[in-house]
Each structure stands twice: as C-alpha cells, then as structure tokens.
Design goal:
This protein is of the alpha/beta class. Helices cover 44% and strands 20% of the residues. The chain has two domains: 190 residues, 3-Layer(aba) Sandwich (Rossmann fold), CATH 3.40.50; 145 residues, Response regulator (Rossmann fold), CATH 3.40.50. Helix 11 crosses helix 12. The termini are far apart. About 2% of the residues have low confidence. This is Amino acid ABC transporter substrate-binding protein. Keywords: Amino-acid transport, Signal, Transport. It comes from Franconibacter pulveris. InterPro entries: Leu-bd (IPR028081), Leu_Ile_Val-bd (IPR000709), Peripla_BP_I (IPR028082).
C-alpha cells in the first residue's frame, strides 16, 4: 500500500513538473500577427488575392526559420482584411487591424485606400508597408510609419513620358485618366514629363474607374489624329479600351504606366492587345534576384502563376520581419527605427527607404504585347553602377 502511495505521489509530482515546463515554454513563445489589407472581393479581388498569396508565402518561409526575437520563439500569422478597394472601407479595415493588435500591416493595394488608412496606422504607431500604392501622395503625408517597396508615380510618369517621346517618337499624344488618386496623379506626371520635353498633349479626357464603354472619349480623341493614347488606369479597363481603339480604326499606340501588365489584360484584350506598351514598377520577374525561385514556389503553393504584384507583397512582409529581427523586438516603437534604416536583399531587389519611406533607387520596366505575351523591352532607373 505504501509503495502504491509513493508511486502515485511520484506520478503527481512528475505531472506537475511537466505542466510547469509546458507553461514555461508557452511563456517563452509568442504569436505575432501581421495584417494584410487589400481588395479580396469585388472587381479587383484577383489582385488582392495575389497580394495575400505573396504575403502568406513570406509568413510560411519565415516560420520555417523558427525565429527567436526578444528571447521568445516567435510564430508569425497573417490576418487578412478586405478593403474592397474602397477608401471608406479601408479606414474601417485599418482600425479593425489596429484594434486586433497587429504588429504591422502590409497594404493597401492602391493609393486611394492607402492614403486614408495611413493616418490610422500612424496614430497607432505601427508600420504600414505598401506593396504597391504608387501614388507619391501616400508618402508625402509625412507619416514616419508609411513605407512602399516599389517606385512611385512621379518617377513612373516621368520615365513613361520620356519613353513615349524619345523611343516611341510620339508627337500627337492624348491622355485619358480614371479620376482615381492613382490614375489622375499618374496622368499629371506623364503630362509634366511631356511638357518638360516641349510636347503638349492634343487632348485630355476623363472617365471613372467603372467605365467600360470608351466610345465617347475615343470619338473625341480620334478627330485629333493621335499617334499615342496614354491611359492612367488599370488592366481591367485598359483591355476594353485597347479593343475599342482598334475597333474604331484609331492608328495610335495605347500606353500605360502601372497596373497593365497582367494575364487578365491579355485575356480581356485578346488580339486587340497586340502592340500595347506599358511601364511597370520593378524588374521583370525573371530579372528579379529571387524572381525565378519565387515564381516556382508560388506556382507550387497556389497552383497557378503570379497575377501581378505578389513578389512585392512577399518582400513587404519579409522586410517587416527583418526589421523586427534587427531590433530584436516585435514592438513597433523598437522596430520602426530599424525599418527606416534597413537595407534588405529581397526577391524584387534591394530594399532601403528614403526619408519619406519611398524605395530608394527604384527600377521600372517597359513591356510590350508581342504575339499575345507581355515582353520586356527595357529597364529604366534602378541603382547606378
């Protein structure tokens, strides 16, 4: 009987010790949540999902490293919110992510949502790393919590204007924009670039981001005999625009600068997409330092190819984590200075930020649709050797 009591006591002590050990291990581990904000439903859902997939791949890769930050084993988790590409919804989404205690945010997709959301993140003191959001106005707000991992439209519009005049030899240029913060801002910079080269646009027309019939604006432009039409907008509208240009017999090159170069454009534009020219921030995937490996990993994980900006969402996520590692803290007050000073070798290239939070030395690539595929023509900008 005494032996049984002694064994029972020993087992109880052992169990207590195991429980204490488990609690100690739990206390030394931490789950860190990174927010992802983008359009996960609606017309731009394919782009939002592409960003989410890229960010999730980054989370998966980071967790394979079994990182220790601040003396704790850290597991990262992605929390996604759907901003529907709508500025008001974006503000509500940003507040929800902040209230849920995310350590930092990757997002939003476009400039129109990133600008109002930025104040929410700034007031909360956490980093917002935009994987796209190319409108310069986003970082010109002066928030020290705002960053972006691709070039902005002041540079993109300038390069597009130079390419149109110097390489495409365009002389009679018309401009259309979708009146969004992205489209209008890009068109303004494109026009400023033309004017700096002594070229004035022959016409400027406006649509909205839901326009699908471009007959009216193109009829007005056709009478002025353009040789190039620049569109400040994205692929889902650029495709029907390209088709209508051909259907109306307008002998002009369609050009864009950001948001054109996707499989969606090729599917929607069909044969009328041939010859369209577009400048896109960043290098072609095959020229990115980690592009080929990323593309293979993306295909293996999700069963289909990259839509548009997944590599940038991957890098936005990884650079956030890298700053936390450098600061040895997941607290934003500690990692933000490290993020501002960081130099990180990413899939898309080296990531370092200027005083506004813009990517230093951004590259831009000019593409053209040749035989139904987007073919890189030349790379502009980037670090000078």
């Amino acid at each position: 009987m005494k032996i049984m009591k002694k064994n029972a006591l020993h087992a109880a002590l052992l169990l207590t010790g195991l429980m204490a050990g488990a609690q100690s291990l739990a206390a030394e581990s931490e789950t860190v949540v990174i927010g992802l904000a983008g359009p996960l439903t609606g017309p731009s859902a394919r782009i939002g999902k592409d960003l989410e997939n890229g960010a999730q791949l980054a989370i998966d890769d980071v967790n394979k490293q079994h990182l220790t930050i601040g003396g704790k084993a850290v597991t990262f988790k992605l929390e996604s919110e759907d901003d529907q590409s709508d500025p008001r919804t974006a503000v509500a989404v940003a507040q929800r992510l902040v209230d849920n205690g995310v350590a930092g945010v990757v997002g939003h997709w476009n400039t129109g949502t990133s600008i109002p959301a930025a104040r929410i993140y700034h007031d909360a003191g956490i980093a917002q790393v935009a994987p796209v959001a190319t409108g310069h106005a986003y970082t010109k707000q002066g928030f020290d919590t705002s960053f972006r991992v691709m070039g902005h439209d002041d540079d993109g519009g300038n390069y597009a204007g130079q390419y149109a005049v110097q390489q495409l030899k365009a002389k009679r240029i018309a401009v259309i924009d979708d009146r969004t913060a992205f489209g209008q801002g890009l068109a303004d910079e494109f026009i400023a670039s033309l004017e700096s080269q002594g070229v004035k646009v022959i016409d400027r027309q406006y649509v909205d981001e839901k326009t699908v019939d471009f007959s009216a604006v193109l009829t007005a432009i056709r009478s002025k005999n353009p040789d190039l039409i620049f569109f400040g907008g994205v692929d889902s509208q650029a495709a029907p625009l390209a088709r209508r240009i051909k259907q109306l017999g307008i002998n002009a090159t369609l050009m864009g600068a950001g948001g054109f170069v996707s499989q969606t454009f090729l599917k929607l534009a069909q044969k009328e997409g041939e010859g369209v020219v577009a400048l896109e921030p960043g290098l072609p995937v095959e020229q990115m330092p980690g592009g080929k490996a990323f593309e293979q990993a993306y295909q293996a994980r999700w069963g289909h190819g990259i839509e548009l900006h997944a590599p940038f969402a991957y890098d936005a996520t990884r650079v956030l984590v890298a700053a936390m590692q450098k600061a040895d803290s997941v607290d934003a007050s500690d990692y933000l200075p490290a993020l501002r000073a960081i130099s990180y070798s990413g899939v898309t290239g080296n990531i370092a930020f200027d005083k506004e939070g813009n990517l230093k030395n951004p590259s831009f690539t000019v593409y053209k649709v040749v035989d139904g595929k987007w073919q890189p023509q030349t790379v502009l900008g980037g670090a000078k050797q």
